[in-house]
Write a structure and sequence with these properties.
The complex is a heterodimer of chains A (155) and B (723).
Chain A: E1 2-6, E2 9-13, H1 21-28, E3 47-50, E4 53-56, E5 69-71, H2 80-92, H3 101-114, H4 120-127, H5 137-154
Parallel strand pairs in A: 1-5
Antiparallel strand pairs in A: 1-2, 3-4, 3-5
Helix pairs in contact in A: 2-3, 2-5, 3-4
Chain B: H1 2-8, H2 11-22, H3 36-41, E1 55-57, E2 63-67, H4 76-88, E3 95-99, H5 121-148, E4 155-158, E5 161-164, E6 170-172, H6 173-180, E7 229-235, E8 242-247, H7 249-252, E9 257-263, E10 266-271, H8 274-282, E11 285-289, H9 298-308, E12 314-319, H10 322-328, E13 331-339, E14 351-357, E15 360-365, H11 370-381, E16 388-392, H12 408-420, E17 424-427, H13 430-435, E18 443-451, E19 457-466, H14 476-479, E20 480-481, E21 484-485, H15 486-489, E22 501-507, H16 523-541, H17 545-552, H18 559-570, E23 582-590, E24 593-604, E25 607-618, H19 625-644, E26 650-651, E27 654-655, E28 673-678, H20 696-708
Parallel strand pairs in B: 2-3, 7-17, 15-16, 19-22, 25-28
Antiparallel strand pairs in B: 1-2, 4-5, 5-6, 7-10, 8-11, 9-10, 12-22, 13-18, 14-15, 14-17, 18-19, 20-21, 23-24, 24-25, 26-27
Helix pairs in contact in B: 4-5, 5-6, 11-12, 16-20
The chains are: A alpha+beta (155), B alpha+beta (723).
Chain lengths: 155, 723
């Protein structure tokens, strides 16, 4: 049995310890907002927060999250920053097919938590691990800048 | 999920369950059950589309519009509702959307089946959906007039209400829907004068953004049924290979594994979730009969293709005498090109969920081709088509892959469901998806062209070599004529420039690699070949590339508007670019839209770096300007990914790229600034999902020539190191 917290609630699963967190989140906990894209940490679609840091759940064995706190896209709106990022995404109309956007938003939120006013270079570095085949990259950058600005205004 | 499921059910079930969900009586805006008049009219030259198939009005005044095209990122869940809402005079803030089930009434107006592709959703629905909305408005006004005992002409509609113009009294659409639904369809359904449009032409926010930013948008992969097993299939490492023998003893022992089955495409492992299925599949021992596909390798194929390109092919276009023209020319240039197989690599891997019962088959998947998939499922399951229903989920990218003429992924999933005997979700890993074929074909081209003394082109001979994507598919009769697959030569046989002697020829060799349409189809390679060669001719003539194109395009050509606008906005010939930067230009028509792109490029560490792209597009009347910008931005990124990095290659029949480490789409750090400018037009709308893609590869290659003096005729561009 492996126990951890997910979106503020306790979770307990009985799976092989090397099972990637991604498949526990999806197949066992049925939180489907976190996506499978590559399975080898190349695309970022599976990004969640582990104790506040953005991680790739597709290469994170569930055994390593024991006793820790996981936040997925479904739990993101619990924080003011998460809400701001989602609202910015909507304001800029970022998503096209939308499949990669949960991961993009989780990464962007972690970035903004660490760097409330990220430079262009910091945005490029943080978001470079996230693929989008629809080509929404410039809107992602704009939405992050907008969220940074709104977060600043709110203070 | 419940909501999505409900929305996909047949009308009767929809109404029943909606009522259960909302706890009240939902009045569907429906015609009598027979709908006889509306359906009979379908066969006539000018079909009447019953509003009941597309519009549901509830007592709370909410309006659900049924969309018969798949949402794969192109914004069709917003653009088609805009067309209906415009004429319906609906309150846009109360609009909801639901995907259509499979039924004839939802067929594509041109293709005669339910299909999303060919950048045709808005163009083929432009009149249809406006008429649907207008018909709804007429019926609602008629219902109000009856209630008030006044003339219809004394009433008008606005914001989901009918208003008695003189007294100002109002009835909401929700209050009128029940009566309106019982009225006969009007014969005359006039449409608005475009100058009265309130929605069309305005940038409207997408209706699917909220669910795509909070994780609730249901994609195919997100379907979970009670008792469902997750299935991974071990497929042949070589195209066309078959299982000779297999040993599943180790795989079967793994916890969570429920069964291992041989299916026509390979060995299927059914388990309680993805991870046990994947782990067990890795333990299978399979001996394959690889067949002739094992002999395929990219370098050999390229040699064969280039050799074919030096021989005469089937003639796709012949104007004048190209051979004589080349002899008479003042200067002649010849060149050979090759471009690779490309994977669609949609972010969401292929997946299909099937619940197969003795008399019914229910499928949940992201598909672009519902009718073909339903018919294939029926055939495999031994059922009638009407016993199969497909729930179209959000597609995590399509780009053509999810419109498979052989219904490959649905076909396999129904075979798996038959074998397993329980509800199944067949999931492809990224590796399966990327190695699964149905690629954009590999192409080789040879062009010889000559210019006259005045620099204008005199002769053009173009030979194209590559697999036909429609050969041996149901689309062959529609898209291939006289041995020419129109999709192989589009953009080449349609060369727009004024050249007196033109010959375009085609070879369509066959091999075991499955090929398919890939965003912009034939244009994805012909634009590169044609527009880089035109650039060579401009250089040969000593002319500016933009001025040269304008000089040799017909006076009334719509190419000119796009090219001129892009040049203007980029400051072509005026803007002082930073040292080491250069512009390259290309203009191409596809799906009836004209797109010019100007790329600002430099060379960093021997590789192309694209800083900025200025695009101008003439796609006729624009429904949603921001939607057009999204599609052109996306089309450019898709084309640039392929131009810079994209290649699927084969060695001994094996695909050498399995994941995003070896098949690299563009990343954010490589992303150029993109500006999209729209040519004003009153023409009917034309395609927009694909036309942004073709011009970017030639624009970048032409910029690299301007920078380095080197002509790059092979894609991807990153295989060569530039000085």
């Amino acid at each position: 049995m492996i126990s951890f917290k997910i979106n503020g609630k306790p979770a307990e699963v009985d799976v092989a310890p090397n099972t990637p967190l991604l498949w526990v989140i999806r197949d066992h906990l049925r939180l489907t907002g976190t996506k499978y894209g590559c399975g080898i940490s190349q695309c970022g679609a599976c990004t969640v927060h582990l104790d506040g840091a953005a991680i790739r759940s597709c290469v994170t064995p569930v055994s390593t999250v024991s006793g820790k706190e996981v936040i997925t896209i479904e739990g993101l709106a619990e924080t003011a920053l998460g809400k701001t990022v989602q609202a910015s995404w909507q304001e800029v109309d970022v998503p096209q097919c939308g499949y990669c956007q949960s991961g993009q938003i989780m990464e962007a939120t972690a970035l903004l938590r660490e760097h409330p006013h990220p430079s262009d270079a910091q945005i490029s570095e943080a978001m470079n691990g996230h693929l989008c085949r629809c080509g929404t990259y410039n809107r992602i950058r704009s939405a992050i800048q907008l969220a940074a600005q709104q977060q600043g205004d709110a203070k | 999920m419940t909501n999505m499921t409900v929305q996909n059910e047949s009308r009767r079930k929809f109404l029943k369950e909606s009522a259960a969900l909302t706890g009240g009586l939902v009045i569907g805006f429906c015609l009598p059950a027979t709908g006889g008049r509306a359906y009979a009219a379908e066969a006539q030259a000018k079909p009447v589309y019953p509003p009941n198939a597309f519009i549901r009005i509830a007592p709370d005044n909410s309006i659900t519009l049924i969309v018969n095209k798949s949402e794969m990122g192109q914004g069709v869940y917003t653009s088609l509702p805009m067309l209906i809402a415009e004429e319906l005079e609906a309150d846009w803030s109360l609009i909801r959307i639901a995907p259509a089930p499979v039924a004839d009434v939802y067929n594509h107006t041109r293709f005669g089946m339910q299909l999303t592709g060919g950048s045709s959703s808005v163009t083929s629905s432009w009149e249809q959906m406006r008429r649907v909305g207008a018909m709804g408005r007429i019926l609602l006004i008629r219902a109000a007039a009856m209630r008030w005992h006044v003339a219809e002409s004394a009433c008008h509609a606005a914001n989901s209400q009918v208003i008695h113009t003189k007294s100002g009294k109002k009835l909401s659409y929700g209050e009128l829907a029940n009566l309106a639904a019982r009225l006969p369809l009007p014969d005359d359904v006039p449409l608005k004068d475009p100058k009265d449009f309130k929605l069309i032409g305005k940038s409207v926010k997408r209706l699917d953004t909220s669910v795509k930013t909070n994780g609730t948008a249901p994609f195919g992969l997100d379907v979970y049924l009670p008792g469902m097993l997750t299935v991974l299939v071990a497929r042949s490492p070589v195209f066309g290979g078959k299982v000779k023998r297999f040993d599943a003893s180790k795989a079967s022992k793994l916890p969570g594994v429920q069964g291992v089955y041989q299916v026509p495409t390979g060995i299927a492992v059914a388990a309680t979730g993805f991870w046990p299925a994947k782990t067990a599949r890795d333990l299978l021992e399979i001996e394959w009969d690889e067949g002739p596909g094992a002999a395929l390798s990219t370098p050999k194929l390229r040699e064969e293709y280039l050799a074919l390109a030096r021989t005469p092919g089937a003639v796709a276009r012949k104007d004048g005498d190209a051979g004589q023209g080349l002899k008479d020319a003042h200067k002649v240039v010849g060149a050979e090109y090759d471009v690779p197989y490309l994977a669609h690599a949609t972010m969401e891997v292929l997946n299909v969920t099937v619940d197969l019962k003795p008399d019914q088959c229910t499928i949940w998947t992201g598909t672009q081709a519902q009718t073909m998939d339903r018919n294939m499922a029926a055939k495999i399951a031994g059922l009638k088509p009407e016993q199969v229903q497909i729930h179209t989920m959000y597609l995590g990218g399509g780009f053509g892959r999810r419109a498979n003429p052989r219904s490959d992924f649905v076909h396999e999933a129904v075979e798996v469901a038959k074998a397993v005997g329980k509800p199944v979700k067949v999931v492809w890993t990224r590796e399966d998806d990327m190695r699964g074929g149905y690629y954009r074909p590999m192409w080789a081209d040879r062009i010889e062209a000559g210019i006259a003394k005045d620099g204008k082109p005199l002769a053009w001979k173009h030979i194209i070599v590559g697999q036909s994507i429609v050969a041996d598919t149901p689309f062959e009769p529609m898209l291939a004529k006289n041995g020419i697959d129109g999709t192989s030569v589009e953009g080449a046989a349609t060369l727009p420039y004024l050249i007196p002697n033109v010959q375009v020829e085609l070879h369509s060799p066959k091999n075991a690699v499955p090929v398919q349409w890939w965003r912009s189809v034939g244009h994805s390679h012909t634009a590169f070949v044609v527009e880089t060669m035109i650039d060579e001719l401009a250089h040969l003539a000593g002319k500016d590339p933009v001025a040269y194109r304008l000089d040799i395009l017909p006076a009334t050509s719509r190419y000119r508007g796009a090219l001129t606008l892009a040049a203007e906005r980029a400051g072509w010939g005026k803007t002082q670019l930073p040292a080491g930067h250069a512009y390259g230009v290309a203009v191409h028509k596809s799906f009836e839209s004209y797109v010019a792109e100007i790329a600002e490029v430099s060379v960093e560490n021997g590789k192309a770096r694209v800083h900025r792209v200025v695009a101008a597009v003439d796609c006729g009347t624009v429904v949603n300007p921001d939607g057009v910008r999204q599609q052109v931005e996306g089309g450019i990124v898709f084309g640039l990914s392929a131009a810079l990095h994209g290649a699927i290659t084969l060695e001994n029949g094996r695909v050498m790229q399995a994941n995003f480490d070896k098949y690299q789409p563009l990343r954010l750090s490589e992303m150029p600034q993109v500006e999209v400018h729209i040519v004003e037009s009153k023409e009917d709308p034309t395609g927009i999902g694909e036309p942004g893609t073709p011009p970017i590869a030639p624009a970048v290659a032409n910029a690299l020539f301007a920078l380095t003096g080197k002509r790059l005729r092979r894609l991807p561009l990153d295989q060569e190191t530039l000085a």
